[in-house]
Amino acid sequence: MAADERPRRLAQSTNHAVEKNRVKSNQLISEVQWDRIPLVEGEKDARAWLGFQACRGLALNTLSAYGRNLERYLRFLNSYDKRPHEIGQEIVGAYLRDLVKPSAAPEEPDIRMANATIQQHLAALRMFYDFLVEEGRCTRNPYRRGDGRSSLPLVRREHKLPTIPTEEEWCRVLSETAKEPIRNRLMLAMSYDAGLRREELCLLETSDIDPSRRTIHVRAETTKNRRSRVLPYSVTTDELYGQYLEHRRTLSRQRGRLFLSQSPRNRAQPVSIWAWSKIVTAIARRADAAGFTPHTLRHLCLTDLARADWDIHEIATFAGHRSIETTMIYVHLSARDLAAKFNATMAQLHQQRLEGMGRLFR
After folding, report:
1. Side-chain half-sphere CA neighbours of 328 within 13 A
2. Alpha helices (H) along the chain
3. What's 203's domain CATH number?
4. What HEC string does 95-111 produce?
5. Residues 125 and 192 in one domain
6. d(CA 177, CA 184)
7. Residue 3 is inside which H or E element, if any?
8. Where is the Tyr recombinase domain (predicted)?
């Protein structure tokens, strides 16, 4: 190759890479449902920030949550005729008050936003204002504490034990689930067997299931922390899986998403996380199992592993957690479980003490 050809070839290669990255970025940004967040789309800084988050390769559900949180915030600022970079502490305080106050809807009296939801809102705003500071649009982040003024959080984080159904509630849930179509029965069984998050469950594809080994491959791109894992499922679930495949062929013979809708409006379309949540909510209501959600199945699975004396590190690997502290939040042993363990331990220790004291009389 001639010496003068090398710079030209290098420039062509560089331009091709830049164009490829630009196209990929545009594809990621186009995945954001802008029609649902018109204020974010119309605000230059907000659109740029959410577009940047899309380019990071975040899950669509995460992007949707960021978009909804920012849309709510911009709608609040519009009521004060303010732009994001024009606010002071009085606006921050007013928005915090708006977040924690009860719902104003007459059909939902005294319904407050959950503490975890408030924390998600504030996390999105902290990242958004970090972006504005870096871009020179703000001099400081009004939603980030601990910068010399105060180390206290804007809203204290509450740590609540997860809801775990009693044996009676679980039996009622299973009884009501048995009345559901085969797809819903399989989704509940797989969710419990493998401790799946609802996103992981709904994004399963036919190629992710290995019936010969009775395993589920949870792909990294469908997980919350981008960690893939292979998990087992039970013989009962395997039988449900075989029955569901026969039903699925009546909807579609194409590979792809495992769980398909059978409603006339969305026939053969993938089941969304929102549809699955509605299904579980309906089952829980009929079973009179208060607080039972799709995530309850994950909590119950990990708690049952702890009851079966699995090591905490094993449970963390099973759940796909990076931190054991996260696993400890999920694993919830009831007072009855703890009492049984305490009594068994104390009986063993007491016996050892008595045996030791017996040496005094020899």
Report:
1. 4
2. 5-30, 38-42, 44-55, 60-79, 89-100, 115-134, 167-177, 182-194, 198-202, 235-249, 273-287, 294-307, 312-319, 324-330, 335-358
3. 1.10.443.10
4. HHHHHHCECCCCCCCCC
5. no
6. 8
7. none
8. 160-343
Q: Output the pTM of the full model.
A: 0.66
Q: Please indicate, yes or no, if residue 271 is contained in any of the structural domains.
A: yes
Token representation of residue 236: 């009962």
Does 203 map to a domain? yes
Structural contact between residues 203 and 309, judged by C-beta atoms closer than 8 angstroms: no
257 forms beta bridges with: 205
User: Which residues, including other chains, have CB under 8 Å from residue 133's CB and lie 6 or more apart?
Assistant: 139, 140, 141
Is 281:175 a contact under the CB 8 Å cutoff?
Answer: no
Residue 53: Cβ-neighbour burial (10 angstroms; 0-12, 13-18, 19+): buried
31 CB neighbour count, 10 Å cutoff: 11
Same domain, 17 and 107: yes
Considering only 57-71, 73-87, 254-268, 278-292, which range has the smallest mean pLDDT?
Answer: 57-71
The answer on 74 and 32 residing in a single domain is: yes
Domain that holds residue 186: 167-293
Structure tokens at 203: 């994004």
What is the residue whose two structure tokens read 């830049």? 18
Separation of alpha carbons 123 and 275, rounded Å: 26
Q: Dig out the tokens for 170 from the structure.
A: 């679980």
Structural domain count, the chain: 2
CA–CA separation, 335 vs 253, rounded Å?
Answer: 49
Give the tens place of pLDDT for each residue, 154-202: 777 766 666 788 889 999 999 999 999 999 999 999 999 999 999 999 9
CA distances for 313 relative to 164, 325, 328, 331, angstroms: 21, 10, 10, 12
The kind and range of the H/E element at 229 are: strand 229-232
